[in-house]
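## Example pair
The file below holds two records. Each record gives the amino-acid sequence first, followed by its structure token line.
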Amino acid sequence: MPARNWFALLPALLVCSCGTVRFYTQAAGGQMEIWRKSRPNAAALADSKVEERVKQRLRLIEELRAFAASDLRLPTKSFGKYCDLKRPYVVWVVFAAPEFSVEAKRWWYPLVGHLKYRGFFDEKDAQQEGERLRKQGLDVFVGGVEAYSTLGYFKDPVFNTFLHRSDAELAELIFHELTHAKVFIPGDTDFNEAFATANAQEGVRRWLRARGDAAGLRAYEASLRVQQGNVRLLLDTRDKLNALYTLQDFATPDDRRLAKQRVFEEMLKKAGANPPVSRMSMQNAAQKWNNARLNTIAAYHTLVPGFGRLLKKHGGNLDAFHREVAAMKKLDDVQRLTILGTQKR
């Protein structure tokens, strides 16, 4: 890690608790591991020991980076190197929320402000943090994450963890992470993730059209419709829970817990009865749904339709779209939601 970047962390570390110092220490160690194990894509492509499958994905990523720069107006200093971490996830992320609230717990970080998650490079550390929060009575969700971004502060590499994705899925991931380096508003997780999601989805459409891949575009649009069905169901469930938590006519906390459980049971029942989202109900059987897990969906998708309307207002002109989004940095949360024509969920 360059000395200037390490020393920049010292003021924050000096005012932190021991637990927070440990968090930043593991974060610095994880970032240093990434740098240590990274090498230029060209070196990996020239290495006879690297599998052809990996080389094919790296060649595709070089194509995606070029398209992102020329057609999507995105900065592309990231993804010029390859990093094989020899594990399925880069980080494990902890989400938390009160037992009877859909408002996410937030953590403060230097440079980026408050975010709705806490990331760890070791699964054991993430699980320990999750257990600590559960003992405080919070709903907690801990999940592995395949992609990792420093939001343009450093040159992030391509990771082995996301090379298994389809071409369109890989393109969406690359465009999503590059979008964070284009515009990022400290402290507004929902805005940042939804903008990156909407911009990436539009980027995939344009890339597939430029390739002349009509079949790929139809398949991608079909996958988005399935995803939108999932998201609607999950966000509707979150709205029902929010209404439930504001009611005062529960005799005991156990009565409220039972009502909460019934809302999630209804969600899974609807998922099982609807073929486009039936896979979701099977995937969820092993992991319990709670307020924290719902927030992982809300953060990425609640504001996506608003960004779609904003892009349409600019006639699909990405430069104008990006300029207006960047200008929203000067606004507060309510003003941004007003422009997007979306209420907070």
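Second record, same layout:
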Amino acid sequence: MSESLSMLAKLVEGQLVIPDALDFQEHIAAASTLETATTDAITLVDSAERLPSLAKSQAAAAIVPVGTGTQDRPTIEVEDVHKAFATIIQHFRPPRARHRQGVSPQAVIDPSARLAGDVEVHPLALIGQDVELAKGVVIHAGARIGAGCRIGAGTTVFANAVLYEDTLVGRDCLIHANAVLGAFGFGYKPDAKGLELSAQLGWVELGDHVEVGAGTTIDRGTYGPTVIGSGTKIDNLVMIAHNCRVGRHNMICSQVGVAGSTTTGEWVIMAGQCGLRDHIHIGDGAVLGARSGVSNDVPPKQTVLGEPAIDLRQRKLQLASMSKLPEMRKQVKHLLKRVEELEQTSQLATKESSSKAA
């Protein structure tokens, strides 16, 4: 399939710009990134800084921000480059049609479970006692939904995810493959016999529109819930410990670890590989930079970085100072040498003065 540039511009409500006297390819057959685009493809450039990369690309045309000009190939100028490019990709590669499967006879469903209309349960999924699945819920193959779980309308649980008993999930959530919700918290008390596991009497509770990434784990509370607020998005391979209460619309990137009983406000961002100690609070709108070791409360709207995590501006000053250490070391060595020379000169002068006095 190929489409004209003018049709693609109309599709994304953009402005087609063709440099004067340019010999160009009118029809486009694919949409690809700058690095992989071939001579029959359209690509995207999301900022003027990336124009040099476009010059090296084989792409026949590009989606660019409004006002970003280029003289070597046609462009389609739009307000939102990524939205427009996604529309074009889906035009060339339409999403695969999904056929609703209903409830598979190969699924294991306890007789006490309550399934609303339009629910899908795929082969080899297990639905435990007293489970409630609201309208439009999809449970993929191999998923395990423990006793007493409640899953809200429109939620999808992907293959091999595990929801321990009494887990509560809101509407329109996505729980990706191999995620585990409701495992025991890592709490032990030493006694004469060894390490005794603490109470595991709580549960996990997700609000609406929450996404839980593949391989992510969220532990149950000790006595009450571990809570993930509505709208929060959690990346792959994140660990959230028992009794945590994560606020609304947080973004938690891959390999973040949050220790027990930590809480967050709304719109918090945790970049990759952050580590948060237990019993601290992260304020509304705070940003935790990648690989930050957070051991104290973070005020609202503050950005922190480093280990231990401190205010970003202070950390930048520290890093700038560290980058100057090699030069400062040379300067110190030079100054020490000069001091030594001056001391030797002073001692010599003192000896000469003493000789003359004698």
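Notes on the second record: The CA atoms of residues 173 and 210 lie 5 Å apart. The domain at 161-314 is CATH 2.160.10.10 (UDP N-Acetylglucosamine Acyltransferase; domain 1).
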